[in-house]
Amino acid sequence: MAFVQQSSPHAHNARPTSRVMLWVIIAALPGLLAQTLFFGWGNLINVVWCIALALACEGAFLRLRGKPVVFFLKDNTAAVTGLLLGLSLPQFAPWWVSGIAVISAIIMAKQLYGGLGANPFNPAMVGYALVLVSFPVAMTTNWAEAAGLFGGAPGFGETLGRIFSASQTSIDGWTMATPLDEYKHKVANHTAVEILNHPTFGDWVARGWEWVNLAFLAGGLLLIGLRIITWHIPVAMLAGLTIMSLAFGNNPDQYASVQLQLLAGGTMLGAFFIATDPVSAATSHQGKLIYGAGIGILIYVIRAWGNYPDAVAFSVLLMNFAVPFIDYYTPPRTYGHHKARRGVPGRNGG
Amino acid sequence: MTQLWDFSGGIHPPENKHQSTSRPIREASIPDILVLPLQQHIGEPAEVVVNVGDRVLKGQKIADVTTGMGVPVHASTSGTIEAIEQRPVPHPSGMADWCVVLKPDGKDQWCDLEPLPDYQQLEREQILEKVRDAGISGMGGAGFPTDIKLRPPRDRKVDTLILNGAECEPYITADDMTMRERADELVAGLKIMAWILRPTRCVIAIEDNKPEAIAAVKTAAAEGTHIEVIAIPTKYPSGGEKQLIEILTGMEVPSGGIPADIGVMCQNIGTAVAVARAVLEGKPLISRVVTVTGEAVQEPGTFDALIGTPVQHLLQLAGLQAGKLNRLIQGGPMMGFTLTTDAVPVTKTSNCVIAATGSELPAPPPEQPCIRCGQCAEVCPMELLPQQLFWHAKAAEFEKAEHLNLFDCIECGACSYVCPSSIPLVQYYRFAKGEIRHQQAEQLKADRARERFEARQARLEREQQEKEQRRKERARAAAEAQEKKKAEAQKAADKGEAVDERSAKAALVQQALERKKAKTAQKTGQSDSTAPESVDKPDIEALEKQLTQAEGKLATMEGMLEEARAQQADNVDKLERAVAKNHDRVKRAKETLEKAREQHSNETTTG
């Protein structure tokens, strides 16, 4: 009788990667819903377009690399990259801008580095940063006005037409600067009260944006509850941003307030869905805290003193650079050891 | 309520224990044949003290360890020694090892027993000797000789003695059922061990998923003892020695150390019962409780089986449906190993046999890339970074893996259990550990070789110098002789004798030939003590080389063994066998060399 030979353990109860990624997609749906409700069909169209293109790119490249296409496509990671780009790009970003973002995300940032698990940088953010730097006009003038799906936002057909049309004439009345952009460009010669009168800020923090952020926050809490992500990165990132904002930006005539920092830009999406990408994030709990805090601090630094109104992509990418370094110096203390063995072997380990 | 601590990580796999706890412990019948491996413990294999054809009684010693660490093996029932041969033994590699094969006669006749019921009146050393003589080694899995464990290093005082009744692995119920049904015996065993060690605290720790066991042990321990029976939260691997110590004391066993370093000792439930039987009834360890479970058996349960009972026999008693059997595991589903055949015997360390169907423990899905999700680090009870260890193991960056404390990994399998990419992480760690041990052995070998080479180089140099010295002396002597001859010739010439130049030369040649002859004779006379430069003795040279090689290998093996012992690695027994084998090889090589030398010197002196 030939019995199966297997190394222990013999029992497994894993939630496969594909299901983990599916949960990430599900957890992002409230945010997408809020975006659609407040900003029209743009995000939804972008999401569908980006996911489709991401899967196509991934499939094509897997085939070129001689890897099993279906096996890897089923892990849903390319879909998540497409989803994140669709959620973060401007609602009316032309199809080729989002296309370039997706292609560079999947091919350059992911597949060329060796595919799933081997990319040092967050693929979606590489794509985002690339188009942000390359096409600044398209990336700043295509944000939808927070008119609301039932309050005057362009219909599905119109939105689709605009995204996929060849001509890129700006249509006023549909688009509007983002709250953070508005604040940044007016703060030099306006008071906070004057700026906040602009319709983009609405009644509470930033019209529409606040609900989108809260929806992403809710989705993020779901991910923590499901133990798909740990609390360390989001909490550290939000804490870093908040502390910086309270320490340096308590004068609203100079810097956007802390509630704008937290609820007006891509902060929550970044904190719970982007910075937590495990492949490109730090690994130990302590490392995650440093990594998250670094992102939060950089977001504030770039928003307050840099050229860009929002800064999630750049901050995440900059901290991605630091991950190997952080990992070297933040291993946990192993059971039975007095202290953690930091650094690289042969240096100060022992 | 006693204070308890928590260990980090851990998992809650489905327990699957109820299947085998619904029936009481069943007495397994005596099988047709008993296979008793000579090595069921860590240390030296036992040497057989009976012969094929001998009749032995139940409990009679059939093998013992005379030199080195180890415990004897006893006949589990009365019968005849049928063979002493290599048979498959329970080992992850599926290897065969030396076993005594006993044909039971069905009489089950005990040998004379010498119980020591008044052990408290005796010397501790006597009791420890009794424990050793009863063949008791740790019955939880490692099989460390219990008497040695009960003698902690002189400078270590055991304050806390823990009886490990956690039994955290799914499926296994041997300890649970023992605690339910033999609580009195295990408390008696614990008392004996406590009498030997005199700890200030005695604890029996049981996972709170075993209420019946807790109740039974509490009743047994209640009578005038200071034994604490503590229910600990159910979480795998709470029964890991290090984890259990942390739960109960909040202390950690130092890396590379033993629990006695922090004044703690853990003993197994089965071991305690065995100690009680050995001391109070004089009975050696010849049977143990084994769980036989899995969906491929119809009546899963626990059996009191004689050591040496083939697993096959137990499976039949439990109603095996052979067609359904897909994977046969000894131990639990987390840390157990698959058996290649059901002919292997129950040993002192066999606590569970799982006859699993294909659907019960399905093959894991294909491995996917690691996405560094960190689930493994969340569940690691040793607070390692499994994903980093995997990364380094896969990239063969062993130095980095070691730096991240690879050798602190207890291979509990929690990381593999939760890995969303279904990476066989533990297998990677075993591979890395094996490679590192191999490299260390190679390094040791290389160091030895370098030392040997340098020694040889020095010897050759010395010999060269001596040769040079001799040559110079000869040259001087020759020059002197020449001088003398010249002087004589001069004298003769002076005398006016006509000397033919030719005859003078001939005389010189003659002289040289004579010298040479004398030298050769001298050389052959003392041939066996000279260096092996002479061409006429290739045999001895080859043999000598063989001997050095064998000695080198033995030294390497011993080094490796020491290393493995220090790390309590699982290949200790294998290494020990290897060392023994190399011992023999060296001995053989020495003997043949000796013989060859004798022969040779005889030849040279006679010829």
TrEMBL record, chain A:
Name of this protein: Ion-translocating oxidoreductase complex subunit D
Listed transmembrane segments: 20-38, 44-62, 69-89, 208-226, 233-249, 255-276, 288-305, 311-329
GO cellular component labels: plasma membrane
Gene designation per UniProt: rnfD
Residues where FMN phosphoryl threonine is found: 178
Membrane topology: Multi-pass membrane protein
Compartment(s) of residence: Cell inner membrane
Pfam family, one: NQR2_RnfD_RnfE
Organism: Marinobacter persicus
Family: Belongs to the NqrB/RnfD family.
InterPro entries hit by this protein: NqrB/RnfD (IPR004338), RnfD_bac (IPR011303)
UniProtKB/TrEMBL annotation, chain B:
Gene Ontology BP terms: electron transport chain
UniProt-recorded Gene Ontology molecular function terms: 4 iron, 4 sulfur cluster binding; electron transfer activity; metal ion binding
Composition bias type Polar residues, residue spans: 521-532
Keywords: 4Fe-4S, Cell inner membrane, Cell membrane, Electron transport, Iron, Iron-sulfur, Membrane, Metal-binding, Repeat, Translocase, Transport
Annotated region described as Disordered, given as residue ranges: 1-23, 458-541, 577-607
PROSITE patterns to which the protein is assigned, alphabetical: 4FE4S_FER_1, 4FE4S_FER_2
Top-level EC class: translocase
Entry-linked Gene3D superfamilies: 3.30.70.20, NADH-ubiquinone oxidoreductase 51kDa subunit
Sequence positions that bind [4Fe-4S] cluster 2: 380, 409, 412, 415
Biased composition, class Basic and acidic residues, residue ranges: 458-504, 577-601
Cofactors (names): [4Fe-4S] cluster
Cofactor note text: Binds 2 [4Fe-4S] clusters per subunit.
GO cellular component: plasma membrane
Topology of this chain in the membrane: Peripheral membrane protein
Keyword Iron found: yes
Subcellular location: Cell inner membrane
Enzyme Commission no: 7.-.-.-
Main location, first listed in the record: membrane
InterPro entries recorded: 4Fe4S_Fe-S-bd, 4Fe4S_Fe_S_CS, Ion_transpt_RnfC/RsxC, Nuo51_FMN-bd, Nuo51_FMN-bd_sf, RnfC_N, Soluble_ligand-bd
Domain 4Fe-4S ferredoxin-type span(s) in chain numbering: 360-390, 400-429
Keyword check for Iron-sulfur: yes
Role description: Part of a membrane-bound complex that couples electron transfer with translocation of ions across the membrane.
Quaternary structure (record): The complex is composed of six subunits: RnfA, RnfB, RnfC, RnfD, RnfE and RnfG.
Family affiliation: Belongs to the 4Fe4S bacterial-type ferredoxin family. RnfC subfamily.
NCBIfam families named among the record's database cross-references: PRK05035.1 (NF003454), rnfC (TIGR01945)
Protein name: Ion-translocating oxidoreductase complex subunit C
Annotated gene: rnfC
